[in-house]
Amino acid sequence: MKFCKKYREYMKQREVNVDLPGVGFKQLKKILKRCPKRESIAATNSNASRCGDDLDSSLSGCPDHCPVCDGTFFSSLLNEMSTVVGCFNERAQKLLGLHLATGLQKYMIWFRSKQWKSHSGLIQEGKELVVYAMINAIADFKEIHYCKQGQAFISQAQIKHLEILRSPWLCELIAFHINLREGKHAKKRAVPDLFDGCSLAFEFEKPILSCALFDSVKVDIHLTCSICLDTVFDPVALTCGHILCYMCACSAASVNIVDGLKAANPRKKCPLCREAGVYEGAVHLEELNILLSRRPVKLLCSSIKLPLNCFAFHYSCPEYWEQRLQAERVDRVRQTKEYWESQCRAFMGV
Fold first, then answer.
1. Which of 3, 130, 284, 309 has its CA 20 to 30 A from that of 30?
2. CA angle 174, 179, 181 (to 5 degrees)
3. Does the pTM of the predicted model rise above 0.70?
4. Alpha helices in the chain (DSSP H)
5. Can you tell me the distance from the alpha carbon of 6 to that of 337, in angstroms, rounded to the nearest whole number?
């Protein structure tokens, strides 16, 4: 397993991040050595090296029920994935909380935490956890356990929301990096390109947040709301990974904006993937909202009245975003008024 050696060398180079959890390749490799299919592949490999036979037919993966892989390997890998993803989400929340805090609150956070060093150092930690450990690990294990077990493992990871590339905090970190790079103080301080290739691009007239993490790994996050078909405004990420406008998400969950998504019925489903219970743990993407509000992007003018025809794409500016903000505010005030009027009627028994 060549990747195991490369990964250990990679982690040793990051001495400042010794407290970060990693994937225990040494332990997982010992488990793989007990796999009966792996032993048969090794025997076939030695015979084929003498006879010159093709090994493609023999590398079809484990049997349907492998006691080693089903009972030990994938459960151990799943636990380690959960630890790494949990650590990544926690550190990302702390980093973004510090960046979004203002005034005295920011200084209180700095004084309370002894681990804060710099924005660049914390983003670097996030980058290490995001890709190199998890994506390459899963790809390498899937190469050994080709089909059924590997696919079942990936499906289980998706159900438990352990795909770190679909984490809302990754989207926030990318938006945070672009905001930091293009902010008003960017010229005064050097901001390293820790996320190479971060950009807000367009594909078929739709905004996409792109980030090239490695030469072979690229993340594309679509920023078009599937309900209003407009660029997401005040975006929220559901636990399934899909991003919607906050008001559209409230409408899909059949809740009032005053109660919020936490009041959604657990049986309510995502309008895209139809997964239930995705609203209670929704994450507000504040960094992404800041990025979209000040960047010239193409928007679909379907929510407010503009000189262009409805459903026509155009380049926006802060003035457009302000108009959309005003339109959203009117709708929110109306819903809030209706909510409290209904509460008053219920209280008075009318």
1. 130
2. 95
3. no
4. 2-13, 25-33, 36-51, 67-68, 74-100, 104-112, 119-127, 134-144, 148-159, 168-181, 246-253, 286-294, 318-348
5. 60
The answer to whether residues 157 and 78 touch, using CB atoms and an 8 Å cutoff, is: yes
Please, which pLDDT band fits residue 237 given cuts at 50, 70 and 90?
very high
Please report, for residues 60, 81, 136, the alpha-carbon distance to residue 149 in angstroms, rounded to integers and kept in the order given. Answer: 11, 17, 17
Distance between CA atoms of 165 and 224, rounded to whole angstroms?
A: 18
Per-residue pLDDT at 345: 85
Question: In the predicted model, is pLDDT for residue 101 greater than 90?
Answer: no
Q: How far apart are CA 5 and CA 333, in angstroms?
A: 58
Angle at alpha carbon of residue 90, lines to 86 and 94, rounded to 5°: 170
- The answer, yes or no, to whether residue 55 has pLDDT greater than 50, is no
CATH T-level assignment (fold) for domain 212-348: Herpes Virus-1 (3.30.40)
- Compute the 3-state secondary structure of the chain and give helix, strand, coil in percent, each to the nearest 5: 55, 10, 35
